[in-house]
Amino acid sequence: GYLFGISDNAIFGQISWCDLGQPEVWDAASIDRLKLKEGERTEGADYLYGKLIIFNTYSIWIYYVSGNEESWKLEEAPTSVGCVAPNTIKKDGQRILFLGEAPGKALGIYSFNGTSSELLTDDISPILARANKNKLRNACAEIHDDIYTFSLALYGSEINNYSFDLDLINRKEDGTPAIYGPHTFAFFSSAVLNNRQNNKQWLMGDEQ
Questions:
Q1: Distances (CA, A) of 53 to 4, 73, 173, 174, 191
Q2: Which of 18, 89, 102 lies closest to 55, judged by CA?
Q3: Which residue in 54, 101, 107, 172 has a CA-CA distance of 20 to 30 Å to 21?
Q4: Interatomic CA distance for residues 203 and 197, integer angstroms
Q5: Do 90 and 97 contact (CB within 8 A), yes or no?
Q6: Dihedrals φ, ψ of 63, to 5°?
Q7: Are 48 and 96 in contact (CB under 8 A)?
């Protein structure tokens, strides 16, 4: 298999990869680039259906094998939503959840299925509209016990100060997750929700 790395230089997003089956060998010629939109940056990546999914601020790109295993194709997904917070990108089965927005699209948690993005947080869009736009990139999330918990800065806060839970099992009539919150606790690193527990309660990170 391959290991991939992603980066950007404010003009192009760049994908690099190791030699097939040799994770210690990275050829300088093994790169591909995608043109970034104005003000856009490459935020993160995950995989879905054997394809590399690349999240930019205003767009999503798909990198996949076309033909033999050393022939790859890069194409932009037909969705107008991008990701604004890399630490909110979390895979849930055959979907990837992330905090995103786009012109004419609400800020919220979206679910990407490999082609399109669905807004999961329409019910709390008026609250999320009060987010500190200068601190959106610091938002973070984690999936634990089938709950997608995300935290962000609301109401002018300079740090994440609220969190919400999306129940990935219990869903509303429209198929979107039940939403719990807002909670007046926050966290600043998704890793703190992975394995730190005390009496079965999740321990939250804090900034000092």
A1: 11, 12, 29, 26, 21
A2: 89
A3: 54
A4: 6
A5: yes
A6: -120, 120
A7: yes
Contact 69, 20 (CB under 8 A): yes
Give all strands of the β-sheet with 60-65 in edge-to-edge order: 42-48, 51-56, 60-65, 72-76
φ, ψ for residue 128, nearest 5 deg: -65, -25
Q: What is the pLDDT of residue 69?
A: 67
- From the number of C-beta atoms within 10 Å of its C-beta (0-12, 13-18, 19+), residue 25 rates as exposed
pLDDT of residue 189: 62
pTM of the model: 0.86
Residues 93, 73: contact at Cβ < 8 Å? Answer: no
- Where helices occur in 47-148 by DSSP H, the ranges are 125-128
The distance in angstroms from the start CA to the end CA of the chain is: 41
Query: DSSP code of 109?
Result: E
| Contact call for residues 42 and 36 (beta carbons, < 8 A) | yes
CB 164 within 8 A of CB 183: yes
- E strands of 9-57, at which residues? 12-17, 31-35, 42-48, 51-56
* Residues of the chain predicted below pLDDT 50: 193-208
Is there a cis peptide before residue 182, judged by omega within 30 degrees of 0?
A: yes
Neighbours of 200 (CB within 10 A): 6
